[in-house]
Specification:
Keywords: Lyase, Thiamine pyrophosphate. Belongs to the XFP family. It is an enzyme of class 4 (lyase). This protein has about 800 residues and is an alpha/beta fold. The protein contains 25 helices and 22 strands.
Length: about 800
């Protein structure tokens, strides 16, 4: 990173005046977006009809965001660097939109919002207006990868964006309200995972304007010495800029920016050219400026600027209160728009003096439109890792261990290009993915000891015991054009429920923007799942993440429950190749029976749901008497075991076995792209025959997905019903009535007339369940006929 052509201390008065002109122009445009829908250049006195009927937006943070954007422009232009900005106070949308319009990237993206008077009027009117654009920094905003409506994730996104982009500077503005959130507090530790050789740099700017929506901000009320000690304890080198006099702040912030970038350049040169291995103390800027700076000092006798009252709309009655209208006009004219925009409404050259050109503009950087940088992931042929299956249900493998070998190949094949990472909360080895360490280490730039294993600065497995930070890293990584996988214990994926909500919304909106290119999907591997957390107990038993995800936008979300190793390989291959999805894969890490060959697995996963003819007793001449359906590895095993019992005890019963891999297949075709048509669903499950469905998670999800189907009244679902403890694997399914013996009893209860004819079979099933309870309490293991069971069909 080059030093500035002109040191900040040598900036001329003309330089500072140009920076101030840009800042004033951005402030003017931000205020205009909140209030105006006509008369954008104030060529006539402001009147009520020029004002929007609903005033929405956030003014308080906008002057600070405009200030940072203005000064980033200078260092990017002067140093010729590639930069990306993450705006933590994303509700400061008017500021980011204003700067994008000033630099021209907005008009290039949206030609109808031209960089002239007509375009300015459209820019103003569309903001938070029906049919317009959101008030937050949304996917519609050029240069953005971070929505910011929900606070806490900006710094994690920034670090994710910097990973494996060695020439990139990512500046992240952290709001002082946002800094109170748990995810943001954890994100300060991300500097211990940043490699100065292979990664770019993150420059955090902690903006302390003093207030949240109605309360003071904690960090803003700390004495500077205490705050400085806190940030130094996190491993940063804080550079403090404080003030409320514009020209003094301009000079101080310019000096801070140059100092920070010079330090970053020295750190990177020392690591890349000098072989320095000591963890650096990365710089950051602490910027203290008033909330609502340059806005109304007082409204209706109450202080506004530098108080919480400046947070949103300082003057709320402009259309009906003449005093408010006069104050708004005075506020807008205080920026001297006639000096900033020419007669056509275009920004004057002085305003644009420090704006970079081309793709170095913050609104035009390809790093914020990651699909432009995305390359196909080199995936090995599945036959390389497929497990042989001579007969179904006789041999076991650990599915995720086999998947780990495939991921090792991907990691090795991307070593030169470094665009694939695996993240997880301290669980890579626990989840049987340790084969990855044959191709890479775990990223780590803190103290190491001789007993440590697989730690290295340049590692591409990311482990930290914060699901929030893992999620934020991966989102930032994907949004800037790379690929990845998030491996997590199933029960604790809920920690990022809200984060995945926001990412799904981002993807859904992005799909509707032709200029946003598709990015690699966000792939979850949920393992150590509910049915094999028998050793950790109730706290680790929760299969509800899939319910949460399937509530979201159908065109974005996909949920897969592969029943064995080869189906997991097929599903993972599909997910890693996909674009613009959130893929949730639930698969066990414990030994699981192999049911399908690789070819059969690919065909079955392509269908998403299908009949396993070899498992049932249909003869093809009539409809089955009963359908046994299953989704998930343990429910599949119990269903196959139940089918075997029925084959033995009731050979005349026509049993159909249906396995579901893709949960969205159960939805109507009109509601999800993967959904089955009515005829497809009826052909698979029948219209009027009983269906016993053994499901991995909460039973009501199956009912919700199928409630409109004609045969729904005949559907009986078994699944997890919040019965858990530390026990044996089979006792978990017994406690939740998902076991093979209960499934057989369900068949006897629901096939008309069968219960009377087969009362002895039902009694035998109940007796085994009774014997099971006594056995595990005496021996601590499962019944031999369960533990030693194999498929005999």
């Amino acid at each position: 990173m080059r030093k500035a052509k002109t040191a900040a201390g040598q900036l001329t008065d003309a330089d500072l005046a140009a920076l101030d002109a840009h800042w004033r122009a951005a402030n003017y445009l931000a205020v205009g977006q909140i209030y105006l829908m006509a008369n954008p250049l104030l060529l006539e006195p402001l009147a009520p009809e020029h004002i929007k009927p609903r005033l929405l937006g956030h003014w308080g943070t906008s002057p600070g965001l405009n200030l940072v954007h203005t000064h980033l422009n200078r260092v990017v232009r002067d140093r010729g660097i590639d930069a990306l900005a993450v705006w933590g106070p994303g509700h400061g949308g008017p500021a980011v939109l204003a700067n994008s319009w000033l630099e021209g990237s907005y008009s290039e993206t949206y030609p109808d919002v031209s960089r002239d008077r007509a375009g300015m009027e459209r820019l103003f009117k569309q903001f938070s207006f029906p049919g317009g654009v959101p008030s937050h920094v949304a996917p519609e905003t050029p240069g953005s990868i971070h929505e910011g409506g929900e606070l806490g994730y900006s710094l994690a996104h920034a670090y994710g964006a910097a990973l494996d982009h060695p020439g990139l500077l990512v500046t992240c503005v952290v709001g002082d309200g946002e800094a109170e959130t748990g995810p943001l507090a954890t994100s300060w530790h991300a500097n211990k995972f940043l490699d100065p050789v292979h990664d770019g740099a993150v420059l955090p700017v902690l903006h302390l304007n003093g207030y949240k929506i109605a309360n003071p901000a904690v960090l803003a009320r700390l004495p500077e010495e205490e705050l400085d000690a806190l940030l130094r304890g996190y491993g940063h080198e804080p550079i403090h800029v404080t003030g409320d006099e514009p020209m003094a702040v301009h000079r101080a912030l310019a000096a801070a920016m140059d100092r920070a970038l010079d330090t970053i350049g020295e750190i990177q040169r020392a690591a890349r050219e000098g072989g320095e291995t000591v963890r650096p103390r990365w710089p950051m800027i602490v910027l203290r400026t008033p909330k609502g700076w340059t806005g109304p000092a007082e409204v209706d006798g109450l202080p506004v600027a530098d108080t919480w009252r400046a947070h949103q709309v300082p003057l709320s009655e402009v259309r009906t209160n003449p005093d408010h209208l006069r104050q708004l006009e005075g506020w807008l004219r205080s920026y001297r728009p006639e000096e900033l925009f020419d007669a056509t409404g275009a920004p004057r050259p002085e305003v644009l003096r420090f704006v970079p050109e081309g793709t170095r503009r913050l609104g035009a950087t390809p790093y914020a439109n990651g699909g432009l940088l995305l390359r196909e992931l080199p995936l090995p042929p599945l036959t390389r890792h497929a497990v042989p299956v001579e007969r179904p249900g006789t041999v076991m493998h650990e599915p995720t261990r086999v998947l780990g070998a495939l991921l090792e190949d991907v990691m090795a094949d991307t070593e030169g290009r470094r665009d694939f990472r695996v993240v997880g909360p301290d669980e890579t080895a626990s989840n049987r993915l340790e084969a990855l360490y044959g191709a890479t280490d775990k990223a780590w730039d803190a103290l190491t000891r001789p007993t440590d294993e697989h730690l290295a600065r340049g590692g591409r497995v990311m482990e930290v015991l914060s699901e929030h930070l893992c999620q934020g890293w991966l989102e930032g990584y994907l949004l800037t054009g790379r690929h990845g996988l998030f491996s997590c214990y199933e029960a604790f994926a809920h920690i990022v429920d809200s984060m995945v909500n926001q990412h799904i919304k981002w993807l859904r909106t992005s799909r509707r923007l032709a200029w946003r290119r598709p990015i690699a999907s966000l792939n979850y591997l949920l393992t150590s799942h509910v049915w094999r957390q028998d050793h950790n107990g109730f706290s680790h038993q929760d299969p509800g993440f899939v319910d949460h995800v399937l509530n979201k936008s159908p065109e974005v979300v996909r949920v897969y429950l592969p029943p064995d190793t080869n189906t997991l390989l097929s599903v993972a291959d599909h997910a890693l190749r996909s674009r613009d999805y959130v893929n949730v894969i639930v698969a066990g890490k414990q030994p699981t029976f192999d049911w399908l060959t690789m070819d059969e697995a690919i065909a079955h996963c392509t269908r998403g749901a299908g009949v396993w003819e070899w498992a049932g007793t249909e003869d093809g001449t009539r409809e089955p008497d009963i359908v046994l359906a299953c989704a998930g590895d343990v429910p599949t095993q119990e269903t196959l075991a139940a089918a075997g019992l029925l084959r033995h005890h009731l050979p005349e019963l026509a049993v159909r076995v249906v396995n579901v891999v893709d949960m969205a297949r159960l939805l109507p075709h009109e509601e999800h792209p993967h959904g089955m048509t009515e005829s497809e669903y009826d052909a698979l499950f029948t219209r009027d025959k009983p269906v016993i469905f053994a499901y991995h998670g909460y039973p009501w999800l199956i009912h919700r997905l199928t409630y409109r189907r004609l045969g729904h009244a005949n559907l009986h679902v078994r699944g997890y019903k919040e019965e858990g403890t530390t026990t044996t694997p089979f006792d978990m399914v017994v406690r939740n009535d998902l076991d093979r013996y209960r499934l057989v009893m369900d068949v006897l209860d629901r096939v008309p007339g069968l219960g009377v004819r087969a009362v002895s079979v039902r009694q035998a099933m109940a007796d085994v369940r009774t014997r099971h309870h006594a056995w595990i309490r005496e021996h601590g293991t499962d019944l031999p006929e369960v533990a030693d069971w194999t498929w005999q069909g």
